[in-house]
Specification:
The protein has one domain. Helices cover 83% and strands 0% of the residues. The protein is built from 6 helices and no strands.
Length: 150
C-alpha cells in the first residue's frame, strides 16, 4: 500500500514537472498534475484487473486522452497542454534504458528481448489509447456539427 501511495504522489509530481518544462500557464498546472496522477491511478487499477501490458496501457492511455480532451474544452486551450503531462507517468523510460543496456553493453539478447517486448507493448498501448479517444472525439464532434480546434 505504501509503495502505491508513493507511486501516485510521484505521478502527480512528475506530471507537474513536465508541465512546467513545457511552459504550461500557471492556471493549468494543477489540472496537468491531476491528469498525470489520475492516469496513473487508472493504470494501477487496470493492473489489478489484467496482466496484459498492452491492454493496461490502452486503458490508461485512453483515460489520459479523454481527460485531456475534456479539460481542453473546459479551459479552451489545445489538448496537448494536458495530454503530454497526463501520459508522462505511463512512458516506459526504464524499459527503454534497460533494453539498450542489455542490447549494446551487456550483450544479453534474451533479457533485451524481454525488456524490448514489454517496452513496445507499453508504447503501443499508450498510442492506441490516445488514437482511439481522439478518433471518437473527432467523430462525435463531427456529428454534433462543431468544428474542433487543434
Amino acid at each position: 500500500m505504501r509503495e502505491t501511495i508513493i507511486q501516485i504522489i510521484s505521478a502527480f509530481v512528475g506530471s507537474l514537472g513536465f508541465a512546467i518544462l513545457y511552459n504550461v500557464k500557471k492556471t493549468n498546472l494543477a489540472l496537468c498534475m491531476l491528469g498525470g496522477g489520475l492516469t496513473w491511478i487508472v493504470c494501477l487499477c487496470a493492473k489489478s484487473i489484467t496482466a496484459d501490458l498492452f491492454v493496461i496501457n490502452v486503458i490508461a492511455g485512453a483515460f489520459g486522452a479523454c481527460y485531456s480532451e475534456i479539460m481542453a474544452r473546459i479551459r479552451k486551450v489545445p489538448k496537448t497542454i494536458f495530454t503530454l503531462p497526463s501520459i508522462i507517468p505511463l512512458v516506459p523510460g526504464s524499459g527503454l534504458y534497460y533494453s539498450m543496456i542489455y542490447l549494446f553493453f551487456e550483450k544479453q539478447r534474451d533479457v533485451f528481448e524481454t525488456y524490448g517486448k514489454n517496452t513496445f507493448l507499453t508504447v503501443s498501448g499508450i498510442a492506441a489509447g490516445l488514437v482511439l479517444v481522439s478518433v471518437i472525439f473527432k467523430y462525435v464532434s463531427k456529428l454534433s456539427g462543431k468544428k474542433e480546434k487543434i
